[in-house]
């Protein structure tokens, strides 16, 4: 049975009874370049890049099925993909079991988290000079155990996690221990179908393919600030950038951590690190938290680089469109109850990661550096070492 594509949230109708869906499906499709894996997937992609496995355009895909139903027999489900995706006939959605090494949800604090030492310096906004009241300094020695540092994560940008193991009676996801091959150069466009033992059959057609990759450059300015620029990404609804660095005491001990956000207001976390629907991004653009889709540059203040002189890792996200589907369609007669069987949501984004003040990754990958620049050079400090490795020049 065909699903109804929702181009905008349905307007509530008076007196209509709405029954929540038995199953919810979430599909997150992202395009990554550079060291983008540092933002959402941990250090994996960054380490891959250090060994020559990253930097080029790649794709990230996460599939999640949550249901209020108990399975018929063993829990089992598959996402049958279009042939154009070139990922086989289907992708298995595996139900995590105790001791299976469940992945942490975005925003979840890992069990092995260690409280940092020293201080955290918070900066925000685009411009050669940091704005008034910056940086906000948080001394971890003065933070009570278990207390979240103030003004660190935003409460104005809620993160919609979607279905997961904790909010579903039965749950399955991909990638998993049975299947985790990264998406290649195939296309998302076409018919998608999800069938299993614990949910109604779900089917929808996608018209939006992977977003275009981001090619970002950063250039030091005479003032000590850094100009971050990038290509305009089609279908982008807005951009958000952040950078993170640290300084030491010269004996290998970290003293300060430095965190900068492109938001023109003091907003640092929450849903900004996640996938955001277009309506939320539009609101954040008007609030100057997210950069508008027409903007293709942002200057990181000189004070940020001065606070972290050795190296900084940066990330830029282009939020993308969202497709929503529901079955059955909402009855036109408000007196008829809307008993939803299932909903499906497909979210898009494009991200890139880079060294701030380090080598131009785009130029390095495209072989645009001169022969002289490719010769091994003596590297100074942690930043020089990483720069030499990432640019392929060595140390």
UniProtKB/TrEMBL annotation:
Domain of life: Bacteria
Residue spans of biased composition, Polar residues class: 8-19
Region feature Disordered, mapped onto this chain: 1-20, 94-114, 363-383
Protein name per Swiss-Prot or TrEMBL: Uncharacterized protein
Source species of the chain: Sphingomonas gilva
């Amino acid at each position: 049975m065909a699903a109804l594509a929702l181009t905008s949230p349905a307007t509530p109708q008076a007196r209509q009874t709405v029954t929540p869906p038995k199953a919810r499906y979430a599909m997150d499709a992202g395009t990554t370049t550079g060291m983008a894996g540092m933002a959402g997937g941990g250090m994996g992609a960054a380490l891959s890049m250090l060994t020559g496995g990253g930097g080029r355009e790649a794709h990230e895909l996460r599939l999640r099925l949550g249901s209020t139903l108990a399975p018929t027999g063993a829990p089992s489900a598959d996402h049958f993909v279009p042939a154009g995706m070139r990922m086989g006939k289907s992708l298995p959605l595996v139900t995590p079991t105790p001791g299976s090494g469940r992945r942490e949800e975005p925003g979840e604090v890992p069990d092995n988290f260690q409280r940092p030492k020293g201080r955290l310096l918070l900066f925000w906004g685009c411009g050669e000079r940091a704005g008034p009241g910056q940086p906000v300094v948080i001394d971890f020695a003065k933070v009570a155990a278990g207390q979240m540092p103030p003004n660190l994560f935003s409460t104005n940008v809620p993160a919609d996690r979607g279905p997961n193991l904790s909010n579903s009676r039965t749950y399955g996801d991909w990638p998993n221990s049975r299947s985790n091959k990264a998406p290649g150069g195939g296309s998302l466009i076409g018919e998608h179908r999800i069938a299993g033992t614990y949910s109604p059959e779900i089917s929808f057609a996608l018209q939006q393919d992977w977003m275009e990759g981001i090619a970002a450059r950063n250039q030091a300015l005479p003032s000590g600030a850094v100009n971050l620029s990038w290509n305009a990404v089609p279908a982008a609804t807005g951009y958000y950038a952040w950078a993170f660095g640290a300084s030491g005491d010269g004996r290998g001990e970290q003293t300060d951590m430095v965190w900068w956000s492109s938001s023109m207001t003091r907003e640092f976390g929450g849903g900004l690190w996640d996938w955001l629907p277009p309506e939320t991004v539009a609101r954040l653009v008007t609030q100057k938290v997210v950069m508008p889709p027409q903007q293709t540059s942002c200057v990181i203040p000189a004070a940020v680089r001065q606070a972290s002189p050795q190296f900084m890792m940066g990330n830029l996200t282009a939020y993308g469109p969202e497709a929503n589907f529901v079955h059955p369609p909402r009855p036109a007669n408000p007196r008829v109850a809307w008993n939803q069987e299932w909903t499906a949501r497909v979210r898009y984004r494009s991200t890139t990661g880079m060294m701030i003040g380090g080598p131009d990754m785009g130029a390095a990958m495209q072989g645009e550096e001169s022969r002289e620049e490719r010769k091994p050079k003596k590297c100074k400090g942690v930043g020089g070492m990483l720069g030499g490795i990432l640019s392929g020049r060595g140390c």
